[in-house]
Task: structure prediction
Amino acid sequence: MKKRLAALLALTCWLFLVCIFMLLAKSFDLEIFFVLWLIGMLVIVELLDTGSVQPAYLRPLKYLIAAGIVVFGLIVAQKILEILAK
Result:
């Protein structure tokens, strides 16, 4: 099995498990889902990344992760502002 397909399968399984646990807890929150998706992506890309040679499909994933980190920072800033406003 190619690494690319294995990464896609691993991320799909991870997100499926996250959805199941959120639905069982009856608290589906898009922000928590996004953060857990980002954690899953970071782990998968770290496992796929080699020391010297970088596959061509990793570059767009790294840009996607960088955008995800920016959105994560915005979520954290929003939560901090909500706490300070109380």
Remarks:
- The chain has a mean pLDDT of 88.
- The first helix runs from residue 3 to 24.
